[in-house]
Amino acid sequence: MAEKRPGKAAEIAETKPSAAEPKLLSGGNPQIAKGYGDAPVQAYIAAMPGWKSPAGARIDALIESLVPGVRKAVKWNSPFYGMEDDVWFLSLHCFTRYIKVTFLNGASLQPLPPGASKHPRVRYLDIHEGNFDEAQFADWVKQASRLPGEKL
Question: Which of 59, 114, 137, 146 is the most buried (most CB within 10 A)?
Fold first, then answer.
């Protein structure tokens, strides 16, 4: 007699990571469900690997302190920050060796963030371990929050 095996649904349930352990995608970016507000962003930050989690917490705290009433969301496994729902000025994404900050209207910032993009308005800042100029970042965040955001 053949041994009875659990159904496909049971096999899938066994292989899914628990809600307490988000899956890390290639490059170490946390896979966090889409959601609006602080809770999904905090879940993303908590799941950032290694030194990136405290760096992400510091980035988040700086943005909150500099931009009263900032809106937050996680979309496409990345935290977004804006002045109104679905209109964003900044996002984060983890890579193996750094955190990429995307200024969605970064070409209007002075001085320009160092990373160019294929999109003419977007500029990037790559934050590596132990190399974070908080003063310059804070200046860019203040500038970016006053510019028109990107509707996504």
Answer: 59
